[in-house]
Amino acid sequence: MTDPHGVKPAPGPDQPPIPVRLVTFNVHHGVGSDRRHDLPRLAKVLAAADADVICLQEVDRHFGDRSEDVDQALLLSRALDMQLAWGPAIDEQRPGDDRRKQYGNALLSRLPVLISDVHPLPGSGEPRSALRTLVELDGGALWVTTTHLTTRSPAERAEQVAVLRALHTEPMATGVVVGDLNAAPDAPELAALRADFADAWELAPERDDQARWRFWQREEGLTHPARSPHVRIDQVWVTPGITVAGARVLDDAGASDHLPLAVDLLVPSGV
Q1: pLDDT tens for the chain, residues 1 to 271
Q2: Most buried by CB count within 10 Å: which residue of 26, 43, 165, 220?
Q3: What are the chain's domains?
Q4: 130: closest CA among 73, 95, 94, 168?
């Protein structure tokens, strides 16, 4: 909004909050419930979400036959005309090839990405990482950390959550942590996250999911497995001051083994 002279008000606490639609989605390297790799199908699901920021897990870049050796992150970014921030968890040199074999987290954004950095997470087994970005809003900014925690043990997840919490220091007070956490929101290993963040699904006054005929599961926000979800492991956590206007589990159209979660946020102006 501008005044009669065309001057835009300065950002600040007296200005209305800034709406941001965010989606988090474990895309299973583009392989759907039919076991086919179908990136155009995935792009259609993401486009239909009409999100400002999309956080993806299990994304391949030249990983091999399972994803037709394509650069999924780049192709999705181009298909949706969104900026790309990339956070590999696996990063290997391919023999006789200058392209690297990578797998990890990606952030797609309609909004300018000001900062992007990657943080390895502790633990054994499959490497894990967190992608931390600063997204510029119209009159503010939002820190977004995207991650995919281990399946190995609660103890290792607790170590990883401690790192996630440490990434959001005082100057980064306004932010979200999102992704496939491989644990229920009330799991003991997420205690460090609950100390500074709140579960967006629980905060949302309006909620919708894909329970369909399973009426006893309505408004539980279950996301995995996609065909018959019974756990809520795909989550969005927000810092104090961010309002959650709504949360919806979306139809994945068979594009993955998870369902996407969309949240409508209201971010304070001037932070």
Answers
A1: 445 555 566 666 678 999 999 999 999 999 999 999 999 999 999 999 999 999 999 999 999 999 999 999 999 999 999 999 999 999 999 888 889 999 999 999 999 999 999 999 999 999 999 999 999 999 999 999 999 999 999 999 999 999 999 998 876 679 999 999 999 999 999 999 999 999 999 999 999 998 676 766 778 999 999 999 999 999 999 999 999 999 999 999 999 999 999 999 999 998 7
A2: 26
A3: 18-267 (3.60.10.10)
A4: 168
